[in-house]
């Protein structure tokens, strides 16, 4: 064993880090894991890796227009466009972070942040009392993924290949959960339809209720029905979250082989190191929350001044912004004949919204005192039901073609037209 000399790094620890280095350098050494990209390379990829990021110029315009109280259409448009690149960056940060965390944590991370824009916009609208915007934007996200994105993907893939195949068992498992989520929205609508109108209650029921001094007039009866609706919605939300956790285990652990394509590629190399991806995810989430808040705040005035139905804004416009990056990715995968990935993006994203985001917002509303229930208008419930029904019919054979894509897109356009005149 040699004795130390004047050149021996006495301050070197067991990990080989020289403590004579500047403090900032040592901090970077700690954060930079072995074999991972540098911070500079990470953020260069993050901000310059997609043409979507050119639209980040609209983020400061959104902030300026809001604080200077410009015209409602400008405030809405700037915030609307600003969320497109932010949604893309959220997806990029989530994907990069997932590559280093393993399958289970990756699945949980994608479940949490895969629909971060919908969650942020939903919470922002809920805190401002815009319950209808919350409901229509969530319903619109489901319909957008199931009909528009999946339809365009089938259409694009069908124009390049005469027929595309995908794993039917996994697709059926996903669509079955989607059907369950849809049914949980039908039940509150049926309850409301049967119980909300006092005139529809028979005399014997009214006599019984009055005999036990529960109600004295119709308004009290309506209050009871409203309370029942809240109980149904909150209980269902908790159960749906439980089912969603079970679905994650089913997808990631017990039956993971069903969700893997036969020609699945090798493990993708990360373009960002773990810490930089985490900071990027946190920062973009904060910026998105501000832009979402500005967007929601401008909806009311924009709808009134320019005669745009609020339902159309919530159901058609907002989901297109929130899912812009997913739209491009799904179609690109279809053009590569990777239909398992396309189904996973479209149906999987719809499941995240219906079985995770919607129940989560119901619970957030419960905690914050903003009543959000699973009761959607009868027309909206029927629209969702027939959409899920059509998707189930089309994917049950494990094959897709351009005609199936055309059917899905056509139904989406019919629904958009119906909500424009609603």
What can be said about this structure in brief?
By secondary structure, the chain is mostly helical. The chain contains 16 helices and two strands.
Structure report:
Keywords: Antiport, Calcium, Calcium transport, Ion transport, Membrane, Transmembrane, Transmembrane helix, Transport, Vacuole. One of its GO terms (molecular function) is calcium:proton antiporter activity. This is Vacuolar calcium ion transporter. The chain has one domain (39-420): A middle domain of Talin 1 (Up-down Bundle). The chain has 422 residues and is mainly alpha-helical. The model is unreliable at 1-19, 26-32 and 203-217 (pLDDT under 50). A two-stranded antiparallel sheet has the order 1-2. The protein is built from 16 helices and 2 strands. Helix 7 (131-160) packs antiparallel against helix 16, helix 8 (168-195) packs parallel to helix 14 (339-368) and helix 15 packs antiparallel against helix 16 (402-420). The chain has helices at residues 23-31, 39-48, 58-67, 72-98, 102-113, 116-127, 131-160, 168-195, 203-211, 218-254, 274-305, 310-322, 324-335, 339-368, 378-395, 402-420, and strands at residues 164-165, 399-400. 73% of the residues lie in helices and 1% in strands.
CATH architectural grouping: Up-down Bundle
Oligomer state equals single chain
Q: How much of the residues is beta strand, in percent?
A: under 5%
| CATH class assignment | Mainly Alpha
Computed structural class: mainly alpha
Task: Give me the number of helical elements.
Answer: 16
How many strand segments?
2
Distance between the termini: 85 Å
Number of domains: 1
Arithmetic mean of pLDDT: 80
CATH topology: A middle domain of Talin 1
Q: What kind of sheet is the major sheet? A: 2 strands, antiparallel
* Portion of residues within helices: over 70%
Specify the CATH homologous superfamily: NCX, central ion-binding region
Query: Order of helices and strands, N to C?
Result: HHHHHHHEHHHHHHHHEH
Low-confidence stretches: 1-19, 26-32, 203-217
Can you tell me the overall shape?
A: globular
Spatial arrangement of strands, main beta sheet: 1-2
CA radius of gyration:
25 Å
């Amino acid at each position: 064993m040699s004795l130390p000399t004047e050149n021996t790094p006495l301050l070197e620890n067991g990990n080989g880090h020289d403590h004579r280095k500047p403090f900032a350098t040592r901090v970077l050494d700690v954060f930079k894991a072995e074999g991972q990209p540098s911070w500079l390379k990470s953020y260069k990829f993050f901000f310059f890796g997609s043409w979507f990021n050119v639209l980040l110029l609209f983020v400061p315009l959104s902030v300026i227009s809001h604080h200077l109280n410009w015209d409602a259409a400008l405030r809405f448009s700037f915030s609307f466009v600003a969320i497109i690149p932010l949604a893309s960056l959220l997806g990029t940060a989530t994907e990069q972070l997932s590559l280093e965390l393993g399958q289970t944590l990756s699945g949980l991370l994608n479940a949490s942040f895969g629909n971060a824009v919908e969650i942020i916009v939903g919470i922002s609208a809920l805190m401002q009392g815009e319950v209808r915007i919350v409901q229509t934007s969530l319903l619109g996200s489901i319909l957008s993924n199931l009909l528009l994105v999946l339809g365009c993907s089938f259409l694009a893939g069908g124009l390049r290949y005469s027929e595309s195949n995908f794993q039917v068992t996994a697709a059926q498992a996903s669509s079955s959960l989607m059907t369950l989520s849809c049914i949980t929205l039908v039940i509150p609508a049926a309850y409301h339809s049967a119980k909300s109108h006092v005139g529809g209650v028979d005399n014997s029921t009214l006599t019984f209720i009055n005999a036990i001094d529960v109600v004295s007039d119709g308004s009290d009866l309506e209050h009871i029905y409203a309370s029942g609706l809240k109980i149904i919605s909150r209980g269902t939300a908790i159960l749906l979250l439980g089912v969603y956790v079970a679905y994650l285990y089913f997808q990631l652990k017990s039956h993971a082989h069903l969700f893997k394509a036969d020609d699945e590629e090798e493990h993708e190399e990360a373009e960002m190191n773990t810490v930089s991806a985490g900071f990027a995810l946190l920062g973009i989430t904060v910026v998105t929350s501000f832009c979402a808040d500005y967007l929601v705040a401008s909806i009311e005035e924009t709808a009134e001044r320019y005669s745009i139905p609020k339902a159309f804004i919530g159901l058609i416009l907002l989901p297109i912004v929130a899912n812009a990056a997913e739209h491009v990715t799904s179609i690109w995968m279809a053009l590569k004949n990777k239909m398992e990935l396309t189904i996973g993006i479209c149906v999987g994203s719809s499941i995240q919204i219906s079985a995770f985001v919607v129940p989560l917002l119901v619970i957030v509303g419960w905690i914050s005192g903003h009543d959000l229930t699973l009761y959607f208008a009868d027309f909206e419930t029927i629209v969702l039901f027939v959409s899920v029904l059509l998707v189930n019919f089309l994917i049950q054979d494990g094959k897709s073609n351009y005609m199936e894509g055309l059917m899905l897109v056509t139904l989406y356009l019919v629904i958009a037209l119906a909500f424009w005149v609603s």
